[in-house]
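Summary of Year 1 activities. Much of the first year was spent building the evaluation harness for sequence design. The harness presents a backbone, in tokenized form, and records the residue chosen at every position. We chose the following record to illustrate the format because it has been used consistently in internal testing since the harness was completed.
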């Protein structure tokens, strides 16, 4: 019986290589789209519009997170994260209508604490023997932080939102075109983000040195956090070769970068 030669193995290799990047490309493109829409909504239509976009992003995470991680009791996970999205919407609306700064708003304890308690209650009420209880609890608490971070985009200043979104989107788009050139993608994103920040500095005369340096750090950290999140989650089989899983991971990576814009909004009143 003839042994399989190189020609019979090559087609398998050729078909496997593109599919291995399918999830990465989907994740990168959805991350770029999510970040751009979040930034433009907040800049053009106001913080409540950005909160509305964050609501959609949070719903995507709530529906798809259990499937991406292949978690037990996926229905319960959707209920928990759906409740977190609802609490985050309430916190965002009240916070923005009160016109209080992010640093002074106490409403963000509501979705964070509520999400942690809901995750614990989910484990108590499970009737499936509680397999992988630590994995499920950790995954849900992390998703709570991701959803809340997505809403922090609505508190971002225009400069921080544009610099973060530009750098994040540039890195993600290069990732989608050249999946193996990760450092190049990151470097391009940092350069683009810093260029947007520098343009903002050039057209504004009232930007202090401390604020300029802080804005520059936003331009560097946003693409870094987003790309690192995608690289970690793309190791999952459901994400590596699946478009649906890639889309969820992309939304997660863009939402998580909201931590950077939220911190900038918090420290901006302090640095002048």
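For this record, the design step produced the sequence shown next.
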């Amino acid at each position: 019986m003839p042994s399989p030669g190189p020609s019979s193995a090559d087609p398998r290799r050729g078909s496997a290589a593109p599919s291995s990047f399918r999830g990465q490309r989907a994740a990168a493109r959805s991350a770029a789209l999510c970040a751009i829409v979040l930034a433009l909504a907040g800049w053009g239509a106001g913080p409540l519009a950005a909160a509305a976009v964050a609501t959609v992003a949070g719903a995507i995470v709530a529906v798809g997170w259990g499937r991406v991680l292949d978690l037990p009791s996926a229905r319960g996970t959707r209920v928990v994260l759906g409740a977190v999205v609802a609490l985050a919407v309430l916190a965002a609306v009240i916070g923005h209508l009160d016109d209080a700064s992010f640093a002074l708003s106490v409403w963000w304890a509501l979705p964070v604490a509520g999400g942690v308690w809901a995750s614990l209650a989910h484990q108590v009420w499970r009737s499936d023997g509680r397999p992988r209880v630590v994995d499920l609890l950790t995954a849900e608490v992390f998703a709570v932080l991701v959803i809340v971070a997505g809403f922090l985009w609505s508190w971002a200043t225009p400069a921080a939102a544009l610099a973060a979104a530009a750098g994040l989107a540039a890195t993600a788009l290069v990732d989608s075109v050249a999946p193996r050139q990760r450092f190049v993608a990151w470097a391009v994103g940092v350069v683009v983000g810093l260029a947007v920040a520098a343009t903002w500095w050039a057209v504004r005369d009232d930007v202090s040195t401390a604020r300029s340096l802080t804005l520059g750090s936003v331009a560097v950290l946003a693409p870094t956090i987003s790309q690192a999140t995608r690289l970690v989650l793309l190791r999952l089989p459901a994400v590596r070769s699946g478009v649906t899983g890639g889309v969820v991971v992309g939304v997660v990576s863009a939402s998580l970068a909201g931590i950077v814009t939220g911190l900038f909004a918090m420290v901006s009143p302090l640095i002048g």
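The chain has one domain: 25-271. Quantitative recovery figures across the full test set are reported in Table 2.
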